[in-house]
């Protein structure tokens, strides 16, 4: 079992670091599935094992994340802060690169060995601090200790004095730890919320309906623990709080004040970065889109049936290269882009040829219900996962291990050594996912938008709004969709009819959907399947213990993390496409799924471009019942802006252009005609590199003025 074979790694305190390092990334079929590596001829091959010290410590972090609480914001920050620690160590031994947080220069006879040692001490100290109280802390600390021992470093060396690499590493860790206690995350108080409070009382998921919802537009906590007293009163035992609603206050990486508007609610300031605007409101603006969005989640739930006879080609030849709506922020365009009934949308376009081989992609025909369940589980990132930001580190590490990948940063220039490539890539990717967390969760906290399980049940509680001549009519109820959302009648509950099993529930609303955990006695052998259920009992496609993440929906974190990360990986690799023209993750039939038994056939998730993987991730959350489309496209829009900005700022650090913004060309740290020429070339080509002044995303006179001002000042 490995941290690369999704999920449930088995390496405990007794495992040696050498064994763990050998397992990490090994292409073995265990857990949920396995990554697939192919050579230029299409043959399956082993992955590359040329791992740097930075990669080893990144795997250690992912191991610890998997054993911690599922907290995407906090782990995006951990991924970023550890990347900063490794980068600042690396840059200490460089004469050009700017450091981000710890500013100190160092020298060594063997720079490569010194960097590896200092990185190890910085990561060891920082990870021991960050996971000190983790529920999986014992296993994680054993992993960290074993890795240090295997690398030959003394874990008892804690001094920050002197010019040794170990002391430098300890100093860098101390800097990052101190910063983390003042960065707005409230780490010192366990990341507790300081002023957010939910409006709605909790939904008791195991009971029918949603009778106590106060505001149909606001988030509702979920109570999984309850009991009923002698008087029939439901007593709630507890529920998780909203995770990180105030995260917009946390120090970011490349976000700029020009990206932010300061909103007010409940007497508090809410910084909103890349704000896409207010989502559709029940009973207000775009009410019809609100209903359509949540109703589509219910109809797409019916697509989780592998026995419905619907077969799809899920290869990159059919799925990918999405054609988006003309305006990603125009909610009224969404109903014509997503197909409410079939599940097809703008990404059903595909690529004519694999650019690496020049040949068409081989079709992969599988039941739609297997594809959608595999999709929902692969991207789910709930308990015992690396969370969405860590998932994209998994994908990056897969790409680096691919035999057809070359470590040319930005896709050009000489091949870098493994440590430099990994450190710089992790820095860019870490800054990306952290800026996503700050942006997306700032919006989640402010807009506080409702989740599908709350909205679908509450709409159905009111009745149906389609036909005043049918039972349960209510103008504010759910829309009827024949074959998907219907009124239960005496005719439909008659013997042999589709609602026969719902006899006695006449007048209520029924939904054709995944039937949920109540129909699973053992998920390793049972499948709940799709069938007609009471709308008041609708479930997301998740485990009974993790029905929906404990935070608001709008915007989708998955959509934002994924699109931003895909953009950054495209820029890191200099190629839109995965190595060899296709990334692959394979699920074997009959037992690879976690939520229920399945899939019924082998399914391999395949992506031509990084953006295709991102788009697939976004859709998985609709099939999984976690997000409506309302949450999706605004997240993709945000990610398309956050990723390139983070990469560009990281690249400025690498090239010393944070301290000397006009230093566009060699020889570095000295400004001359070549810098002016390089800037003008980048500006004329509308390159992100020349977008150095607000408003960002636009090349205008402000960029030219900023360059000339920096040029006149020279380099420090």
What do you see in this structure?
With 716 residues, the chain is mainly alpha-helical. Among the domains are: 17-193 and 372-450 and 551-644, Vanadium-containing Chloroperoxidase, domain 2, CATH 1.10.606; 660-713, no CATH class. 36% of the residues lie in helices and 8% in strands. It has 17 helices and 14 strands. The chain has helices at 17-23, 53-66, 72-92, 111-130, 137-151, 165-180, 287-300, 334-337, 368-378, 387-401, 418-447, 452-462, 557-573, 610-623, 629-654, 673-684, 701-713, and strands spanning 34-36, 203-204, 222-223, 225-228, 234-238, 260-265, 268-273, 311-313, 365-367, 485-487, 509-514, 530-534, 583-587, 603-607. It has a 3-stranded antiparallel β-sheet with strand order 1-13-14. Strands 10-11-12 form a 3-stranded antiparallel β-sheet. A two-stranded parallel sheet has the order 2-3. Helix 2 packs antiparallel against helix 10 (387-401) and helix 14 packs antiparallel against helix 15 (629-654). The longest helix is centred in the middle third of the chain and has 30 residues, at 418-447. The chain is globular and about 85 Å long. The two termini are 51 Å apart.
User: Which geometry do the CA atoms define?
Assistant: globular
Radius of gyration: 26 Å
Mean pLDDT: 93
Structural class: mainly alpha
Instruction: Assign the CATH topology of the domain at 17-193 and 372-450 and 551-644.
Output: Vanadium-containing Chloroperoxidase, domain 2
Helix coverage percent of residues?
A: 25-40%
Total number of beta strands? 14
Which blocks of ≥5 consecutive residues have pLDDT under 50?
1-31
The CATH architecture category of the domain at 17-193 and 372-450 and 551-644 equals: Orthogonal Bundle
Helix count, DSSP H or I runs of 4 or more residues: 17
């Amino acid at each position: 079992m490995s941290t690369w074979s999704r999920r449930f790694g088995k390496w405990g305190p007794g495992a040696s670091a050498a064994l763990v390092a050998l397992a990490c990334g090994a292409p073995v079929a265990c857990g949920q599935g396995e990554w697939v590596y192919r050579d230029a001829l299409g043959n399956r091959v082993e992955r590359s094992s040329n791992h740097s010290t930075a990669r080893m410590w990144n795997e250690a972090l992912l191991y610890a994340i998997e054993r911690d609480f599922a907290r995407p914001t906090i782990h995006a920050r951990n991924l970023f802060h550890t990347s900063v620690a490794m980068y600042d160590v690396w840059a200490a031994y460089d004469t050009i690169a700017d450091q981000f947080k710890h500013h100190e220069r160092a020298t060594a006879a063997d720079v490569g060995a010194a960097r590896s040692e200092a990185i190890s001490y910085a990561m060891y100290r920082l990870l021991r601090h960050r996971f000190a109280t983790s529920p999986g802390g014992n296993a994680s600390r054993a992993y960290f200790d074993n890795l240090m021992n295997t690398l030959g470093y003394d874990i008892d060396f804690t001094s920050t004095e002197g010019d040794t690499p170990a002391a430098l590493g300890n100093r860098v860790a101390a800097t990052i730890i101190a910063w983390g206690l003042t960065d707005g995350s409230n780490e010192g108080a366990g990341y507790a919320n300081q002023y957010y409070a939910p409006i709605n009382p909790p939904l008791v998921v195991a009971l029918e309906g949603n009778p106590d919802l106060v505001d149909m537009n606001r988030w509702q906590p979920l109570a999984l623990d309850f009991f009923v007293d002698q008087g029939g009163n439901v007593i709630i035992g507890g529920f998780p709080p909203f995770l990180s609603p105030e995260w917009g206050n946390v120090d970011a990486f490349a976000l700029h004040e020009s990206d932010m508007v300061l909103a007010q609610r409940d007497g508090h300031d809410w910084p909103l970065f890349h704000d896409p605007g207010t989502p559709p409101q029940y009973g207000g603006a775009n009410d019809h889109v609100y209903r359509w969005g949540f109703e589509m989640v219910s109809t797409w739930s019916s697509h989780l049936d592998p026995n419905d006879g619907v077969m799809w080609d899920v290869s990159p030849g059919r799925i990918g290269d999405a054609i988006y709506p003309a305006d990603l922020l125009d909610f009224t365009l969404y109903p014509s882009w997503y197909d409410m009934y079939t599940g097809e949308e703008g990404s059903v376009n595909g690529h004519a040829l694999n650019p690496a081989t020049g040949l068409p992609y081989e079709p992969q025909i599988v039941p739609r219900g297997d594809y959608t369940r595999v999709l929902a589980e692969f991207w789910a990132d709930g308990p015992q996962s690396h969370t969405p930001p860590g998932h994209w580190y998994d994908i990056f590490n897969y790409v680096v291990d691919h035999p057809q990948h070359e470590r040319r940063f930005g896709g050009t220039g000489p091949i870098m050594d493994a440590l430099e490539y990994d450190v710089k890539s992790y820095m860019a990717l870490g800054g990306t996912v952290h800026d996503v967390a700050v942006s997306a969760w700032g919006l989640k906290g402010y807009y506080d938008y409702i989740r599908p399980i709350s909205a679908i049940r509450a709409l159905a509680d009111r009745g149906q709004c389609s036909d005043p001549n049918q039972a349960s009519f209510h103008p504010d109820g759910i829309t009827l969709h024949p074959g998907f959302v219907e009124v239960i009648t005496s005719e439909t509950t008659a013997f042999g009819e589709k609602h026969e099993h719902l006899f006695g529930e006449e007048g209520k609303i029924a939904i054709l959907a995944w039937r949920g955990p109540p129909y699973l006695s053992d998920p390793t052998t049972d499948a709940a399947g799709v069938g007609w259920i009471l709308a008041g009992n609708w479930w997301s496609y998740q485990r009974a213990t993790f029905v929906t993440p404990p935070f608001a929906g709008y915007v989708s974190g998955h959509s934002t993390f994924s699109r931003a990360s895909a953009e950054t990986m495209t820029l890191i690799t200099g190629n839109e496409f995965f190595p060899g023209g296709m990334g692959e993750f394979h699920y074997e039939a009959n037992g690879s799924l976690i939520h229920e038994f399945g899939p019924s056939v082998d399914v391999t998730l395949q992506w031509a471009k990084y953006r295709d993987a991102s788009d697939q991730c976004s859709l998985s959350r609709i099939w999984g019942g976690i997000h409506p489309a309302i949450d999706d496209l605004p997240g993709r829009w945000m990610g398309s802006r956050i990723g390139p900005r983070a990469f560009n700022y990281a690249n400025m650090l690498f090239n010393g252009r944070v301290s000397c913004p006009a230093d566009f060309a060699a020889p570095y740290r000295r400004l001359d005609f070549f810098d002016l020429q390089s800037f003008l070339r980048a500006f004329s080509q509308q390159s992100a590199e020349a977008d150095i002044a607000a408003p960002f995303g636009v090349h205008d006179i402000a960029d030219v003025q900023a360059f000339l001002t920096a040029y006149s000042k020279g380099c420090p």
